[in-house]
Write a structure and sequence with these properties.
Structural class: mainly alpha
Radius of gyration: 27 Å
Strand order of the largest sheet: 1-2
Shape: flat
Helix content: 40-55%
Number of helices: 7
Low-confidence stretches: 188-192
Distance between the termini: 68 Å
Number of strands: 2
Largest sheet: 2 strands, antiparallel
Strand content: under 5%
Length: 208
C-alpha cells in the first residue's frame, strides 16, 4: 500500500514561506482554539468578564448589534445583557443534558422506596426559561414587547399610534392643533421599519 507524502514540519513550512496564502497547521489550530472577542457595538462596550465564556461571547456578538440598531441597547444595559448571554449558555447546557438523560430519573423517596424524580437539569431548564423570558421582554426580544417599546419611542417623536404590520394607513402627528393653511407635510412612512429607520439618534430622555 502506497503511503502519502509525509507532512512538512512547522520549520519546513516556515522555510518554504506561504505562496498559496494558506494557513499552516499551527495557525489553523491556533485559530480554532482562539476565543472570540466580544465586539464593541457603537459606544456600547461589553463587560470584561464576558470574554471568559466563549459561547456567551458568541451570543453577544450575534444579538448585541441587532438590538443596538433598534435603540434597544445602551451602555447601562451592557452588564445585564451580558448576564443574559451567560444564562443562554447555561440553558443550552442544561437542555443538552435533558436530551441525553431524559426528564426523569430513578430515585428513592424519604421512605427508601423506588420512585421517579425530575432530573435536576430539567428543573434548571424551567428556571432558566422563566428568567430568560423576563429578560427578553425587558430587551424587546419578543414581538409583543418589542412593538410596545417601538410604539413608545415613536410616541416620544410625536408620531401617535404605530400601525400594525401591513396596515398602510398614514400616521398623523399626535398634536391636534394642525394649521389648515399650512402646506401639506411630507407623508410619514406607513410601516414600522420605515419609521424607526428614519431615527438616527436615540429617543428623547434616553441615556447614552
Amino acid at each position: 500500500m502506497t503511503r502519502g507524502r509525509k507532512p512538512d514540519t512547522d520549520e519546513q513550512q516556515a522555510a518554504k514561506g506561504n505562496p498559496g496564502k494558506r494557513l499552516s497547521q499551527k495557525e489553523v489550530e491556533t485559530a480554532r482554539t482562539k476565543a472570540p472577542i466580544p465586539v464593541t457595538v457603537g459606544k456600547i462596550r461589553p463587560p470584561k468578564w464576558l470574554k471568559r465564556s466563549r459561547k456567551a461571547t458568541e451570543v453577544w456578538n450575534d444579538l448585541a448589534p441587532q438590538l443596538e440598531r433598534l435603540n434597544l441597547l445602551s451602555n447601562l444595559d451592557a452588564s445585564p445583557f451580558a448576564r443574559y448571554c451567560r444564562y443562554v449558555v447555561e440553558w443550552i447546557a442544561a437542555d443538552v443534558t435533558v436530551q441525553k438523560e431524559g426528564t426523569w430519573f430513578n430515585g428513592k423517596d424519604t421512605n427508601g422506596n423506588e420512585t421517579k424524580k425530575r432530573h435536576p437539569a430539567f428543573v434548571a431548564v424551567q428556571q432558566l426559561e422563566k428568567m430568560l423570558g423576563d429578560m427578553e421582554a425587558s430587551f424587546g426580544m419578543r414581538p409583543d414587547t418589542r412593538y410596545k417599546i417601538m410604539r413608545d419611542q415613536a410616541a416620544a417623536h410625536g408620531l401617535g399610534n404605530l400601525p400594525l404590520w401591513g396596515d398602510q394607513q398614514p400616521l398623523q402627528p399626535s398634536s391636534s392643533a394642525a394649521n389648515e393653511d399650512a402646506p401639506p407635510a411630507a407623508a410619514e412612512p406607513a410601516d414600522l421599519i420605515g419609521i424607526l429607520g428614519g431615527m438616527n439618534s436615540p429617543p428623547p430622555e434616553r441615556m447614552n
